[in-house]
């Protein structure tokens, strides 16, 4: 039986550093993570783990805990429609809204293991009409160093490449390395990956043409969601686009952005 | 959705049938390409074909080529096979497969592929 004060200590720490909220009735979701940490630090039990963390949290202990508590659930072309819409109507919108721009800056703000930024590049090239990827500057960030390390390699298992990715795109953009699949090198080289905490990081100001921040704010409470979205809005150029996850919206958040329909998908455009 | 599962292994069919059932679909078994051809030409309600590659009598590729020549199957065909080399995937797509599932797979991959090819 794990003591309530142990759950509270870890859930408070995770909330403070990621905004991910484990409420009392969600405490059981920490059990498996505790077991992983106990094994990782070669301890006897959760009591010893607590004793270790309460004494001093080293950068390594911090990162291991954060990596474990962030949800790295993702897949290629998640929900498909936003990617198709961005490559067609979305790109046409960028050309019209930013006629003098030589290159467009796109930020995948919670990229997890990299499927999202690679999907954006694949979508632009395969669903778009003659888009020159030299005109795209792609950056991607995540809070989890483990997820980022995998993203930078661009190597995925057979199961991972089958989730969401049509087979024609698999053979066009990946090569097989033994039983795994490697994203083509030009895409790996094109994405500037960086570590970034949406809750505590310093956002760029009026820099991005497009931000993808999908399926991450659902784990945040309203206060954090508002703060992150205000920063995201500030990071966009006037007229810039924000893509959120299916089921996510700006309802209840006061930012100067309006919903915009692009083909079969919806996104938000910052007011000009 | 009524889905024809073409595989010479009954245990694999039963596993896929169970996955399909959990996703709200009905799996019908064909033991090889010839059996699949007979079932498709006598049952127009089949909406999708999941097709193994290596089978006796008529294999998956032979089935695709026969369908290319005779157009007896209007339902989308998705390969479901242990063959996982890019050349094999290319070949199946070239001969009319709509998509490709490599074994091993999970129910959510089947669900995702069904959504993509039937959208």
Helical content of chain B stands at 40-55%
Assembly type of the shown chains? heterodimer
Secondary structure class of chain B reads alpha/beta
Q: Largest sheet of chain A, described in full?
A: 7 strands, mixed
Beta-strand percent range of chain B = 15-25%
How many helices of chain B?
A: 5
Low-pLDDT parts of chain A are none
Give the overall silhouette of chain A. Answer: globular
Q: What is the makeup of the main sheet of chain B?
A: 5 strands, parallel
Residue windows where pLDDT falls under 50 for at least 5 positions of chain B: none
Radius of gyration of chain A: 20 Å
Describe the protein's architecture and organization.
The complex is a heterodimer of chains A (272) and B (119). Chain A is of the alpha/beta class and 272 residues long. Chain A has 11 helices and 10 strands. In chain A, the strands form 2 sheets. A 7-stranded mixed β-sheet of chain A has the order 6-2-1-7-8-10-9. In chain A, helix 5 crosses helix 6. Chain A starts with a helix and ends with a strand. The model of chain A has no long low-confidence stretch (mean pLDDT 94). In chain B, helix 3 links the parallel strand 3 and strand 4. Chain B is globular and about 35 Å long. Chains A and B meet through helix 8, helix 9 and strand 4 of A and helix 4, strand 5 and helix 5 of B.
Features:
A: 272 residues; 3-stranded antiparallel sheet; 43% helix; B: 119 residues; alpha/beta; 5-stranded parallel sheet; 5 helices
Ordered list of secondary-structure elements with their pairings:
The complex is a heterodimer of chains A (272) and B (119).
Chain A: H1 4-18, H2 31-40, H3 46-55, H4 59-69, H5 81-97, E1 104-108, H6 115-126, E2 136-142, H7 145-153, E3 155-156, H8 158-162, H9 167-173, E4 174-177, E5 180-183, H10 185-190, E6 191-195, E7 208-212, H11 222-235, E8 236-243, E9 257-262, E10 265-270
Parallel strand pairs in A: 1-2, 1-7, 2-6, 7-8
Antiparallel strand pairs in A: 3-5, 4-5, 8-10, 9-10
Helix pairs in contact in A: 5-6
Chain B: E1 2-6, H1 10-22, E2 26-30, H2 33-42, E3 48-51, H3 60-70, E4 77-81, H4 86-94, E5 99-102, H5 107-118
Parallel strand pairs in B: 1-2, 1-3, 3-4, 4-5
């Amino acid at each position: 039986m794990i003591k309530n004060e142990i759950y509270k200590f870890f859930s408070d720490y995770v909330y403070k550093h990621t905004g991910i909220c484990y409420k009392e009735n969600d405490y059981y979701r920490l059990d498996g993570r505790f077991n992983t940490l106990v094994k990782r630090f070669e301890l006897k039990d959760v009591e010893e783990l607590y004793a270790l963390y309460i004494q001093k949290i080293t950068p390594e202990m911090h990162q291991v805990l954060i990596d474990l508590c962030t949800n790295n659930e993702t897949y290629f072309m998640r929900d498909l429609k936003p990617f198709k819409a961005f490559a067609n109507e979305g790109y046409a919108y960028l050309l019209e809204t930013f006629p003098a721009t030589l290159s467009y800056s796109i930020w995948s703000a919670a990229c997890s293991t990299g499927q999202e930024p690679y999907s954006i590049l694949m979508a632009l090239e395969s669903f778009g009409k003659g888009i020159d990827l030299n005109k795209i500057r792609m950056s991607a960030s995540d809070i989890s160093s483990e997820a980022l390390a995998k993203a930078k390699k661009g190597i995925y298992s057979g199961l991972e490449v089958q989730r969401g990715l049509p087979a024609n795109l698999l053979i066009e953009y990946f090569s097989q390395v033994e039983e795994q699949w490697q994203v083509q090198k030009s895409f790996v080289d094109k994405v500037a990956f960086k570590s970034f905490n949406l809750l505590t990081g310093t956002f760029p100001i009026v820099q991005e043409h497009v931000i993808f921040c999908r399926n991450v704010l659902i784990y945040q409470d309203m206060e954090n969601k508002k703060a992150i979205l205000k920063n995201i809005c500030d990071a966009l150029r006037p007229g810039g686009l924000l893509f959120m996850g299916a089921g996510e919206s700006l309802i209840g958040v006061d930012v100067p952005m309006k919903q915009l329909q692009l083909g079969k998908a919806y996104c938000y455009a910052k007011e000009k | 959705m009524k889905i024809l599962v073409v595989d010479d292994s009954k245990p694999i069919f039963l596993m896929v049938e169970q996955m399909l059932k959990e996703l709200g679909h009905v799996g019908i078994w064909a033991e090889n390409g010839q059996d699949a051809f007979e079932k498709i030409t006598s049952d127009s309600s089949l909406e999708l074909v999941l097709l193994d590659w290596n089978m006796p009598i008529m294999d998956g590729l032979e089935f695709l080529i026969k369908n290319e020549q005779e157009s007896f199957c209007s339902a989308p065909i998705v390969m479901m096979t242990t063959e996982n080399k890019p050349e094999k995937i290319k070949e199946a797509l070239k001969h009319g497969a709509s998509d490709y599932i490599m074994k091993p797979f999970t129910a959510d991959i089947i669900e995702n592929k069904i959504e993509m090819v039937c959208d």
